[in-house]
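Cross-posted from the bioinformatics board.
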Amino acid sequence: MNYHSSLLPLAAICISLLVTVPILLSDRKPNLRESWTLLAAIGKFCLVAIMLPSVLAGEGFVLTLAEVFPGVPIQLRVDAMGMFFALVASFLWICTSIYSIGYMRSTQEQSQTRYYASFAVAISATIGVAFSANLLTLYLFYEMLSLSTYPLVTHKQNDEARASGRKYLSYILGTSIGLVLPAMLITYSIAGTLDFTAGGILAGHASKATLALLLVLFLFGFAKAALMPMHGWLPAAMVAPTPVSSFLHGVAVVKVGVFSILRVIFGIFGPDLLRSVDLGMVITTVASITILVASLIALSQDNLKRRLAYSTIGQLSYMILGAGMLSAAGMTGGLLHIAMHAFGKITLFFCAGAIYVASHKKYISEMDGLGRRMPLTYGAFLLGSLSIIGMPPLGGFISKWHLLLGAIESQQLVLLVVLLGSSLLNAAYFFPIIYRGFFASPAEGQDLSGIQEAPLCCLIPLLTTATLSLVLFFFPGVLLQLVRQALAL
Amino acid sequence: MTATNLHLYVMVAPLLSAFAVNLLGRRSRNWIAPLALGALSFSTLGALLTLQRVLQHGGYRYTVGNWQPPYGIELVIDPLSALMLLLISAVALVATVGALKSVEQELPGREHLFFTLYMILVAGLLGLVMTGDAFNLYVLLEITSITTYGLIAMGRGRAPLASFNYIIMGSIGACFYLLGAGYLYILTGTLNMADIASILPGLQGHAAIATAFGFMMVGLWVKMAFFPLHNWLPNAYSLAPTGAGIMIAPLMTKVTVYLMIRVMFSIFAPEYTFFAHPGVQAGIVWVASLAILCASALALAQRNLRRMLTYILVAEVGYMVGGVWLANSTGMTGAVLHIVNDALMTLCLFLAAAAIVYRTGSLDFDHLRGLYRRMPLTMAAFTVGAFSMIGVPPTCGFFSKWYLILGAVEAGHWEFVVALLLSSLVNAVLFFRIIEIAYFKVNPQPSGDGLLAGEAPLWLLTPLLTAAIALLAVGIGSGPLVNQVIRLALPPGLAP
Amino acid sequence: MDQLLTEIVGKYNYWLYVVLMMIGFYAMIGKRNLVKKLLGMNIFQTAIILFYVSTGVKRGGQIPILDKHAALSHGVDASQIINPLPHVLMLTAIVVSVSVTGVALAILVRIYREYGTLEEDEILEKIRS
């Protein structure tokens, strides 16, 4: 891939950063404030989309912002992998912005200005991570994301929210400073650079023990990927308003974690190096355990958002598992699952939020019969969960198919068992919700007659993303091509 | 005024203005601001030009009054001292803007006295970084110390007691230094640093050299509050008048670290300092690591913002001493960069504290509730300062920490790596505790003074925001700063 | 033992300064009365000043006041006059020490006015209560 110097990546990152100023200034004019958000969301997506054709044609973009350390600048670079992630994230931000308006207004949340401003910073950081050319730049945006999402987690400002905020920061900041930073410095002192390079930068520089240490530091250091035992923050972060949970803790934040790990695996270590020293096992083992344990815990959760959170933890490890297989199909599946899971999970979270807006119910046991009052929402929920489980004809099937292929290709039948077993568990924790929604009769004394579908602003985004999960099964072309380019297949 | 003695005017301007402030400020306090700010602006400009000149033409020596060394006093202007000149004058300038307002509130009617001492202190600090004479260094060190004692004693309540303890400790430190210099004088017959440096290698193995070195180091460590010699600092700095803290806290410890570097490399050579007694070098890095950890732990126990900051200051001294003693150029780069960064971070945080105390009258954690709503800009700047202390990129704190950790990795001092990382984490806990209180805890019952409090006055807000922006600017510009200034300022003979 | 004794006797002045210094140091650290601390500090400084002055002394040396004509015609025999530089330096050091003492005394006056005592323990007790 050739790279041209261009301001486009910076513009794509900064548009939402800059829009925080008008958002803060229009504190007392909600309509104006939300227009700014929407404007930035659409603008951002357009800026990303403009770059898409040339990336597909093998022409990337690069921009050096500052030379901070010898050999390590703060540099933005748009390549296929970054473009893939940025495309998904920036598109889903539009949906979330619309959804936020509906949700926040219906539930009459406080401090909405702060909410929108933090949200805008967070999406900037997300795109920044996608477009980072080296580990330092990635780290910079990673930290920016951690800090900008803190006000969102503590949004409710009560004791529970503050406690969750503390937990969130301790996990995220603790691991990034305590594990990633030293790992990055060791890498730098070994390799003299931090650029993401196809084939890695560590080959020939370090012993197996050092590599193993670095790998473990990176895997657990990017705690946003919620590999066990670094997953505790994600269920805690569910106290945030639902748009935050859906976008940030379903898509942006967690996938930034996965994306960072994948970048490190592909760009710092290089699959060949990992294969040659047999370290893929480390990754797949951790990921497999996380997948199974998280799915089992999800079964026992009655709070809908918490169940979704544990489901997310499990699904994130699919992506890491795929990368850890170090086979072409596995890596394709892992990367592709970022997008497929994003569309599926955001739909599910949107639905959870819509149910809360319409009925103020958080617990699955209270949702009996709700599906008949909110058929559209529950229909979308069905599509979303089918995609996560990996049933055709939904997007999730494609990525899971690749993962299965990858497991076979790398001749690790254990992983095959893990994948199939976990899919069964996924079904086991999703179908009861749908079943109860449509077929169970409401509990004694429960009057559901007043409940109807959530406002349009909530409904449209969730229907859109659900439809897209379906569409992606039939037209995965662009995404698949980006993934193939990213893996240089 | 010619370009060759420009640096002299950098120091003389605040000195002269000190007397002018005393005489004219006595009549009307309207004189103080223009005099102090004028002199410091002049100094800053002069320091900038000096630095530029040094970077272009290399360092030079200047004999005061044309008394030839080794008898006369020599000033040494090299990239490092020129950088320090700029740092001191710029930080003092920004701090003064804030101090003016704060002193007006806290010490009404005594402003001219305060600013007399204040300006002499700045002049002393500027002189300290230039001097090339070991004895002159002592005198200037005491000038800065005595003015600091006075400034601290102007605070309320227990401040005089804290100041007295500081006097005792400070004098011990200064005497130790003087004793060390005396040993060197006996050995070499000269007090000119360059002269001593040229004679010392011929006296290899003389036990008195080690004694001299030890005394000088311990003396300076007391002065810079290097753990476990730090006891005087938290009280002294947290009880000082707010206006004094704004300037003393960012500059005093940093200048003393600079002096340590001077002594280690301009009087003694790196080969001696680090490699004559290798156990000592490793030992001091261990002590520095311990200093960082203990000071961080002590900071956790504080329930007052300013006291917490003073303990962080002690921890930061550990960063710099450890960085210098890593004995490689990366660690040294980190230490020098951290001198700059820490001065700016401390400035930012102390200014924020000053702004808060100006409006609310207290810095106890319980009084910080809901502050983000009432003083959004102040708290925004405070947050930037906090992030820098934690070491979040792209604030400057991250970049010096990077070099320090990298230096420690290269030197194989893993204990220092661990200490730095843990201290970052503790800083995160410390500052997020405050952010949580100030941001997400709403005042339960709006107290009388709480309602009155609005955004800080422009005189405090401007320097505060300047400092906050500087944190980001220095962070992003740290590449050129290191490549074009600090790299030149490193003492020769360090392992690459 | 003999050797040590000769060492001590031969450089008795330096040993005296060490003793003085230790006395001062003990007073600064060990005493609880603030004035005694201050006096200790003075003793400590005096010891160092004496130490410096001693370094300038030469056996049989004259005071360094030179006759212009004699110096011009015969030159100066450095071994015949004591080294004036330490004395000059110590003048400065004395000034420093006096100013520190001055500041410290002024502060002590303030402390006394505030607490009515100069015993550190009593002051701390008053602060606590």
